[in-house]
Amino acid sequence: MDESSHIEDEDEYEEEEVPVVGIIDIRKEGYRSDQLYCAHLMLRQAWNGNFGAPVDDLLRSKSGAKVLDFGCGSGYWTLEMATEFPSSKFYGINPTASFPGSVSPKNVEFIVSNVLTDTLPFKDAEFDYVFARNIMFTFRKPNFESIVIKELLRVLKPGGYIEFVEEEITEGHNRGKALLRWNVDGLKPWLETQSIDYEIPYRFEECLKSTNQLKDVMEQKLKIPIGKSNGFIGELSAEYIMNTVKSMADNLISIMNLTNEEYDNLVGEIEKEVRDNEEDNNAYFYYRRYLALKM
Ligand SMILES: C[S@@+](CC[C@H](N)C(=O)[O-])C[C@H]1O[C@@H](n2cnc3c(N)ncnc32)[C@H](O)[C@@H]1O
User: Are 187 and 248 in contact (CB under 8 A)?
Assistant: First the structure.
């Protein structure tokens, strides 16, 4: 990678034969109604793999690597990576025990820990690779920048890679009216009331550079099409959006000044828009991935 940072040419997802990544054929899996699993499958499919940092050789090496999945949620990424790279050791950290209780494979350890109340239960410079996905919008300002990044860099070794994967929360691109309304009148105002900085992906590259601990900072942007006219990735992204819209009902009903029934009607309208999205509409959204090397 170049010393200087840059946004790579925008990657556009192209439908290919469905890859068998790791050990499972994703078409056979039940992903519906599980938002995190849906996001995991969508991103794995869209990026054509589980990670972007150049750590493949290290993860496969005999001595392996020590890897942290920060904010691991249900642990889908951790478990799949541990299966694919048995010589490496994977730690999943989450403030609640949302991950599986008994763990297989053996090279995984899940730990309950909240970075906002305690330092992470690791020494300085323990990890070769730190990964964090879809976590920025779970922190109120300024905790992500003032606490989380510092703590993740503390546990990362010099010469180790850090990687973040995050969604852009925009009004969307060629979205239908209902989804646009949900976003502009619901999601964004709610994020604001929570002091969640949904614009952080746009300046995150600068934010990483300003730590003065990282080099080769790189941002990659990926366009994800929505709806079944875009093949399997479009089905996954539609499912992901619907899971998100449904899961936000309790938060958004009052801010949107809707009754339960009116929110359900809006969900129905969004469902129609995203699932049936015609090719001409060409609706899509973006994910960003940030990679950097600790000096
Ligand atoms: C949207 S989920 C993403 C889960 C997982 N990274 C994935 O991609 O499937 C956000 C996760 O951040 C976790 N989280 C929230 N506050 C946290 C904190 N203080 N420290 C670590 N993780 C936190 C949540 O518990 C949740 O599991």
Answer: yes
Task: Tell me the percentage of the chain whose pLDDT exceeds 90.
Answer: 72
Q: Given the CA of residue 73, which atom of ligand 1 is nearest to it? A: 27
Tens digits of per-residue pLDDT, 240-251? Answer: 999 999 999 999
Q: Are 35 and 241 in contact (CB under 8 A)?
A: no
Cβ atoms 77, 131 nearer than 8 A: yes
- The DSSP H or E segment spanning 283 is none
The structural domains of the chain, ordered by start, are 11-175+197-225+280-294 (3.40.50.150)
> CA-to-CA distance for 221 and 288, rounded, in angstroms?
5
Q: Is 72 in the pocket of ligand 1 (CB under 6 A)?
A: yes
Q: Using an 8 Å Cβ cutoff, are 42 and 29 in contact?
A: no
**80, 131, 138: which to mutate for ligand 1, most atoms within 8 A of CB?**
138
The pTM for the full model equals 0.91
Ligand 1 near 46 CB (within 6 A): no
3-state secondary structure 56-84: HHHHHCCCCCEEEEECCCCCHHHHHHHHH
- DSSP per residue, 202-239: HHHHHHHHTTSSEEEEEEEEEEEE-SGGGHHHHHHHHH
- Residue 128 and residue 67 in contact, taking contact as beta carbons nearer than 8 Å: yes
Determine which residue's CA is closest to atom 16 belonging to ligand 1.
Answer: 138
pLDDT tens digits, one per residue of 128-147: 999 999 999 999 999 999 99
Tens-place pLDDT, residues 30-64? 566 788 988 998 999 899 999 999 999 999 999 99
Atom of ligand 1 nearest to the CA of 76: 9
**C-alpha dist (Å) from residue 229 to 115, 158, 173, 275, 284:** 42, 45, 16, 8, 12
